[in-house]
Amino acid sequence: MRGARVILSERDFQRCAPQLSSNQINLALVRAEPQTDVTALAERLRMALPRDVEVLTRDEVLQSEVRHWVWETNYGLIFQAGVLVAVIVGTVIVYQVLASDVASLMPEYATLKAMGYGNQYLRQVMLEQSMLLALVAYAAGVVIALALYEFTAAGAQIPVRMTSTNLLLVLALTVAMCAGLGFGSGPQSLSRRSGGAVLRRCPSKSPHHWPGKT
Predict the structure, then answer these.
(1) Could you read off the pLDDT of 66-112 as tens digits, one per residue?
(2) Which of 46, 51, 81, 129 has the smallest set of CB atoms within 10 Å of its CB?
(3) Long-range contacts made by residues 180-185, C-beta under 8 angstroms, separation at least 24?
(4) What per-residue confidence (pLDDT) applies to 139?
(5) pTM value?
(6) How many domains would you assign to the chain?
(7) Do 147 and 183 reside in the same domain of the chain?
């Protein structure tokens, strides 16, 4: 197994690897005093120790672990593919919901156009609907994700947790996806779904000159 690490006590380590001397140091932890610049301390240790000794701060170790598991293992590729599939499926679902809503409210949209509301107002209405859909779906998704995290941590004994970075990233993707679809489902979509009806106010004020079929 490549890249695996196990932390053992000195007694267990000698039992698992009796061929290694107890005087041979493979890993050492340095505890810095409060208010110490750990980056500068690590640089000084690199200059003082031999070149075959790797000095890493806590943040550098975490970044190395994340890079290894996300980009160098199959698990990371599987999760990345899952995120891509989730975005595609979410896009299709949101588009279907917005398209169904537009189709069911076509007479109301036509009435608003006849009353003088412009394309910008209709685009704003659809954008607000898509944003509301995004926020409701995001809130429900966060609750379900937190429950799954707790279930996984308790069942597999793995300390997994939801970070603020993940929450913000998912929120940004959700808002961007729904905003793009809401903006795209604008007056052009209304015109395509209206069967060729002219969705504009007639310049004449006579009631005999309301929009008809083209």
Answers:
(1) 888 888 888 888 888 988 898 888 888 888 888 888 788 888 878 88
(2) 51
(3) 181/91, 181/94, 181/95, 181/98, 181/130, 182/98, 182/126, 182/127, 182/128, 182/129, 182/130, 182/131, 183/123, 183/126, 183/127, 183/130, 185/95, 185/98, 185/99, 185/102, 185/126, 185/130
(4) 92
(5) 0.59
(6) 2
(7) yes
